[in-house]
Amino acid sequence: MLLDRATLRATVERLGAEISADHPDGVVLIGVLKGSLIFLADLARAITGIDVTIDFLAISRYAPDSGRVKLLKDLDLDITGRDVVLVEDMVDTGLTLAYLLHQVGERAPRRVEVCTLLDRPVRRIVPQTARYVGREIPDVFALGYGLHHADLYRNVPFVVAVDPKVLARRPDAYVADLYGPGAIESPDARQERQKAGGRVNSPDASGGSA
After folding, report:
1. Could you give the CA distance from residue 48 to residue 66 in angstroms, rounded to a whole number?
2. Which of 8-22, 26-40, 90-104 has the lowest mean pLDDT?
3. Domain boundaries, the chain
4. Residue 88's beta-bridge partner residues?
5. Minimal CA–CA distance to 208: which of 188, 193, 194?
6. What is the rounded CA–CA span in Å between residue 160 and residue 209?
7. Catalytic (active site) residue 163
8. Predicted TM-score of the model (pTM)
9. Which numeric CATH code is attached to 5-206?
10. Can you tell me the distance from the alpha carbon of 193 to that of 144, in angstroms, rounded to the nearest whole number?
11. pLDDT tens digits, 116-146
């Protein structure tokens, strides 16, 4: 377990408060599809006291022969002169983020900042940083809360580290673990189950939803 429900909720509330304080004139949240969708929806609700506008970008995967991506969905809004926060599920190598910042910067916003749920700096190639970071993680493969493999696991309401070799062999290998009645527990939930004499608790035993 990297982030259980309670930790996700607290993390999103903290990021929302930081963005609210830094952008008193309002902010445009730009989500990067599809991974950031769930995070962005909760983040927008956590931003209070200011106007929030939402738009999305979508890009292709890096082509193995060229190392390039292409824009699949452009912005619908005019962001000229506006405060923008680019919302990512994870900042990893920095290559994708560098491309997105270039695309957004060409539209002449007043300022552009980055908010990411997860930051994995150990894999950084391009020296990009995010102003708003939910959690820094080591070099692990994460699933849940928008993060996926083969378009599975996006709606898991917590974030876990899994074995990528297992997923490579069978993409649905963790479905039973993450969706079943004995789904992976946080340490707090496990402790509560043990106190209750072995009763199985669901992951939200650690508290609420994000």
Report:
1. 42
2. 90-104
3. 5-206
4. 116
5. 188
6. 15
7. no
8. 0.82
9. 3.40.50.2020
10. 23
11. 999 999 988 888 889 999 999 999 999 999 9
